[in-house]
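ARCHIVE CARD
Drawer: 12
Card no.: 0347
Subject: one protein chain, sequence and derived structure
Cross-reference: see card 0346
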Amino acid sequence: MTDCLECLDARRSVPYTQMTGPGPDDGQLLRMLNSASRVPDHGKRVPFRFIEIRGEAREALGAALEQRMRALDPDAADGVYEKARKRFSYAPVIVMVVAAQGEDMKIPAHERYATAACVCFALLLAAQAQGFVAQWLTGVVASDPEILRLLGVGAEEVLVGHIHIGSTSTPVPERIRPEAADLLTRWTPA
């Protein structure tokens, strides 16, 4: 199992602006999604689903995001709108991970959200295992009602993140990571 630990230790987020093709083909993406779906899931609810953005859909979503940003902040600098328009044009594939948050008598919404968040992280690792780079993003795309409606995210769903997947020729530097020993406390009974 050391390969699993090495994969975790090597994980890096690559900024979406540094991504290019190639991206995963349909078979590679399904392989990633199958692996990413093997997450803790209390009650076996499978409280998540995927939305794939690829090809011309990337530019259409970028144009919609730009239009929405102009409506939300009409006085913003042009760079804000340009960034919104280009947001989905770098990575060849973007996967939206959507969590079910509707009524459930047994499994609380926060547990179902946590399952979908685990899917996002597992998808980052699955992309890396296939030789790709990835980044998990949220922001206005995950919170704006108009963008969510456009994507088909329902009233009882939450967009947990959009995972950009592609390739890069830019070296991916390591960043400072926390030391687990500094974060660990041991509980002892009183």
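Annotation on reverse: Residues 13-53+90-169 form a domain with the NADH Oxidase fold (CATH 3.40.109.10). The helical segments are 2-10, 26-36, 56-72, 78-86, 109-129, 140-143, 145-151, 180-183.
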